[in-house]
Amino acid sequence: MKELVLVGEGFSPWTAKARWALAHHGIAHRYEEYTPIVSEPWLRVRARRMSGRVSVPHLLGPNGLSIGDSFAIAQEADARGEGAPLLPPELLEAIGDWNELSERLMRAGRSQILARTEESREVQIESLPPHMPRALRAIFAPSARLGTAYIRKKYGVSPVPDEALEEDLAAVRAAIAGRPIEPLLGRFTLADVAVATALQAVRPHRTAPVGLLPAQREAWARPELAARWEDVLAWRDAMIDRHLPASSGG
Q1: Looking at the structure, do residues 194 and 113 belong to the same domain, yes or no?
Q2: What is the DSSP letter of 241?
Q3: Which range of residues forms the domain containing residue 104?
Q4: In this structure, are 222 and 130 located in the same domain?
Q5: What does the alpha-carbon distance between residue 207 and residue 102 come to, in Å, rounded to a whole number?
Q6: What element of type H or E holds 59?
Q7: Residue 238 CB-density burial (10 A; 0-12 exposed, 13-18 middle, 19+ buried)
């Protein structure tokens, strides 16, 4: 393989985090959309992982490069790229803490989107491979439930109520108090990328992630929760509007 390839799911905040990190450093790469079950065998071959769990986003590249974690992809981007690091050593511990918070939010979002996919025919249609004609996707829409069942088993997904997100959202609110458009740690880092993308689990940004389709966008949202945390969402919007490069689509 002569180029960097990022394999991901367009609706996924984990994928959005990896794409943002690569774009922040201006790292050229090709993006490939992943479909659960269908795409996994080929990804395993390319990633050289024939056993154990393989997941996306996954960065593939020359000399056997194979990275299947968004945080590790950001570390690789820092090592390869130009510009200010997203993971400065002196802030690494604090960034790790914010990344853990973002993981909890994203897992809650994953729980909701799986449930909404099982309920909504339109989300099922959007979940099928984009190269498939819409008429065929409409016919095969119920098969998307195979994907949701597979993901539930793979990640041990269980329901997450709105109330379970409140403590983490309160931590973000406390961190941005008095400085509603400033980075969490005083300078822009992966902490901001991670939390901003994870807040998709409350309400997606109007334009990000780039691969989020209309029915999926509605399915991710938690309107009642969002209404209580508009200040946190406004901070998220500022981070995306100010710091997300236009090339983040890959």
Answers
A1: yes
A2: H
A3: 89-249
A4: yes
A5: 19
A6: strand 58-61
A7: middle
For residues 16, 217, 169, 232, the Cα torsion angle rounded to the nearest 10 degrees is 90
Q: What is the pLDDT confidence band of residue 249, given thresholds at 50, 70 and 90?
A: low
The predicted model scores a pTM of 0.93
Structure tokens at 23: 């774009």
Torsion on CA atoms 245, 175, 229, 122, rounded to nearest 10: 40
Smallest Cα–Cα separation from 245: which of 97, 93, 28, 25?
Answer: 25
- Residue 164 pLDDT: 92
Q: Please indicate, yes or no, whether residues 148 and 230 belong to a single structural domain of this protein.
A: yes
Last residue of a domain, one of 32, 62, 80: 80
* Two structure tokens written together for 126: 């959007």
5-8/58-61 β-pairing: antiparallel
Structure tokens at 212: 């989020």
List, for residues 40-57, the tens digit of each pLDDT value: 999 999 998 888 889 999
Take residue 191 and report the two structure tokens written for it.
Answer: 């902490």
Q: What is the pLDDT of residue 171?
A: 98
Q: What is the CATH number of the domain that holds 72?
A: 3.40.30.10
Residue 23 has pLDDT above 70, yes or no: yes
Domain identity same for 134 and 40: no
